């Protein structure tokens, strides 16, 4: 690849919109799900795979199932996304978004890998 073409690709990458959103990792053997919100969806599945393959992911139950079953038993899905250009406070936006999706999908206990937030209330 010549230098000019490489520069064009880098410029195009920098100009591409950034999307934040909600992802789901689903265990296809037991249907348990893991819900997360991310500030940048680009290559996010690669991030999860890398950390899980290196036995470095912070969610112990998900990590244990990954170690036992392997990547073939899991499915990655973007449930919702939006352009990040207009977000003023990404941290708060992601926190609120995650709480909304946790209430909607309740991925806890035998249904999923998420932990209930400390201030969790069923009718929040």
Report on this structure:
By secondary structure, the protein is of the alpha+beta class. It has one domain: 3-Layer(aba) Sandwich (GIY-YIG endonuclease). The protein has 4 helices and 3 strands, in the order αββααβα. It has a 3-stranded antiparallel beta sheet, sandwiched between helices.
Number of strands: 3
Strand order across the largest sheet: 2-1-3
Query: How big is the Rg?
Result: 17 Å
Q: CATH superfamily, please? A: GIY-YIG endonuclease
Unreliable stretches: none
Instruction: Give the ordered list of helices and strands.
Output: HEEHHEH
**Could you tell me the mean pLDDT?**
92
Quickly give the CATH architecture: 3-Layer(aba) Sandwich
Percentage beta strand: 15-25%
Shape: flat
Structural class: alpha+beta
CATH topology: GIY-YIG endonuclease
- For the terminal residues, how far apart are their CA atoms? 54 Å
Overall domain count: 1
Output the number of helix runs. Answer: 4
Biggest sheet character: 3 strands, antiparallel
Which CATH class is shown? Alpha Beta
Helix content: 25-40%
Organism: Lactiplantibacillus fabifermentans DSM 21115
InterPro entries: GIY-YIG_endonuc_sf (IPR035901)
Protein name: GIY-YIG domain-containing protein
